[in-house]
């Protein structure tokens, strides 16, 4: 059980929500801040809104034995478990699970051992009515090349989301996309557009930005092409 009793409700902010502006946040450069619940902290990459976000992308850490009060997600929720086991009434999700909770869904998350998730709020369109669960550890990855495997997570008219496993020595060709594109480094390190990024790094590029990726040691990278549902 956590001994940290600090809590703080989120005031209204607009942080990195201009999709026409590039954003680059290196892992470890932002602090984890308190939430309204004891033992739950978040590192915000983008956010519009107060405690009820109109749009948010962040990492959330739960100390062992911590929980979050029952709450709804008016704009849905998408997350990947980075460490530990994240639980709610829908099950226990260990490292590597990818989950999408639909618009209006409600849950009361908790953890016994502690956990961390990469989570996106209020970006799921109302046209997606169902829950979606994928254990990426047991899924069938596709080999793009000897040094690159990819796993689609979710595809729709609004987004193309995948995990990309890159082995040491990988070097991409230059790619451009007609939609905004974002990356999150789950593990390892990678050089993206000439800058080195360690795990927990997040970046977003406007549409039609040339992107190159390389890694000397290997990396696993989340990529989302498209912004999902944009709520203002």
From TrEMBL:
<protein>
    <submittedName>
        <fullName>Anti-sigma factor</fullName>
    </submittedName>
</protein>
<dbReference type="Pfam" id="PF12973">
    <property type="entry name" value="Cupin_7"/>
</dbReference>
<dbReference type="InterPro" id="IPR014710">
    <property type="entry name" value="RmlC-like_jellyroll"/>
</dbReference>
<dbReference type="InterPro" id="IPR025979">
    <property type="entry name" value="ChrR-like_cupin_dom"/>
</dbReference>
<dbReference type="InterPro" id="IPR011051">
    <property type="entry name" value="RmlC_Cupin_sf"/>
</dbReference>
<feature type="domain" description="ChrR-like cupin">
    <location>
        <begin position="25"/>
        <end position="124"/>
    </location>
</feature>
């Amino acid at each position: 059980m956590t001994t940290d009793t600090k809590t703080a409700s989120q005031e209204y902010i607009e942080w990195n929500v201009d999709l026409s502006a590039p954003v680059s946040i290196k892992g470890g450069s932002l602090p984890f801040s308190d939430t309204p619940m004891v033992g739950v902290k978040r590192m915000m990459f983008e956010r519009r809104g107060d405690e009820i976000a109109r749009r948010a992308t962040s990492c959330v850490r739960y100390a062992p034995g911590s929980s979050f009060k029952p709450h709804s997600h008016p704009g849905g929720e998408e997350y990947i478990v980075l460490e530990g086991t994240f639980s709610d009434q829908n099950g226990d999700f260990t490292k590597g699970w990818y989950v999408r909770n639909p618009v209006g869904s409600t849950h009361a998350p908790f953890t016994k051992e502690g956990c961390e998730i990469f989570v996106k709020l209020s970006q799921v369109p109302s046209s997606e009515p169902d829950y979606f669960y994928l254990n990426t550890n047991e899924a069938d990855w596709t080999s793009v090349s000897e040094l690159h495997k990819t796993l689609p997570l979710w595809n729709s008219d609004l987004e193309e989301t995948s995990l990309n496993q890159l082995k040491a020595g990988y070097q991409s060709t230059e790619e451009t996309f007609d939609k905004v594109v974002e990356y999150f480094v789950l593990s390892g390190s990678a050089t993206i557009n000439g800058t080195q990024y360690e795990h927990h790094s997040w970046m977003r590029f406007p549409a039609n930005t040339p992107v190159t990726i390389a890694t000397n040691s290997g990396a696993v990278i989340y990529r989302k092409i498209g912004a999902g549902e944009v709520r203002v």
